[in-house]
Design a protein that fits this description.
The chain has about 190 residues and is mainly alpha-helical. It has a single domain, classed as Hypothetical Protein Ta1238, Chain: A (Up-down Bundle), CATH 1.20.1200.10. The chain is built from six helices and two strands; from the N terminus they run E-E-H-H-H-H-H-H. Strand 1 and strand 2 form a beta hairpin. The longest helix is centred in the last third of the chain and has 26 residues. The protein is elongated, with a radius of gyration of 19 Å.
């Protein structure tokens, strides 16, 4: 890995390139850099979510996820390296099963809304999906490990489930349940 930054304003990117972890320079709009940026944005949004009142177990999980996303970004920045381990994907599978177990079945699509923390979790979910698409696009052009794609896919699912959990946790007093899309089908079912 390249040397750690000792200063932030290096001016080396003024020509429209940036350095990868292995020392090579690529254009700032390179597919790899775009994927790295989406993962960084996701991690930053999770940081915003962590600034909200959260159940302790959710907070602990999100801190672990931030570290794993940093590993994922590091892996993307160093072609040929693997930093994100398969255990990280399995950890997300376990968390999905744990948090989903106590949630009621969905009657319809839900809106990305509710409590502030649930809404931020939905923003994180959509950024995770974008990061996943960027990784898929990169993988179509360059060889990358499968763990980043699997991780982002599971993480977006987990963030959806956590949004539902956070609405029910109702830590800000503004939630309590999912906010269902008012579809014609749901209206008919409720009328029956």
């Amino acid at each position: 890995m390249a040397n750690r930054l000792s200063q932030i304003a290096t001016r080396t990117g003024d020509d429209g390139t940036t350095g990868l972890g292995d020392g090579q320079r690529v254009p700032k709009d390179h597919l790899r850099v775009q994927a790295m940026g989406d993962v960084d944005e996701l991690n930053s949004n999770i940081g915003v979510l962590l600034a909200e009142p959260l159940p302790d177990d959710v907070r602990e999980l999100l801190v672990v996820i931030q570290h794993e996303l940093f590993n994922l970004g590091g892996e993307l920045s160093m072609p040929g390296y693997q930093l994100l381990k398969e255990e990280a994907v399995l950890r997300l599978d376990e968390a999905l099963a744990h948090y989903n177990a106590n949630l009621p079945r969905l009657k319809e699509f839900i809106l990305p809304a509710g409590t502030r923390s649930a809404s931020i979790a939905h923003v994180c979910r959509t950024v995770a999906r974008r990061a996943e698409r960027a990784v898929v696009t990169l993988a179509a052009q360059e060889a990358i490990n499968v763990s980043p794609r699997h991780y982002l896919n599971r993480l977006s699912d987990l963030l959806f489930v956590l949004a539902r959990v956070l609405n029910r946790a109702n830590l800000d007093g503004l939630g309590g349940d999912d906010i269902y899309w008012q579809s014609e089908r749901l209206k008919r079912q409720e009328a029956e």
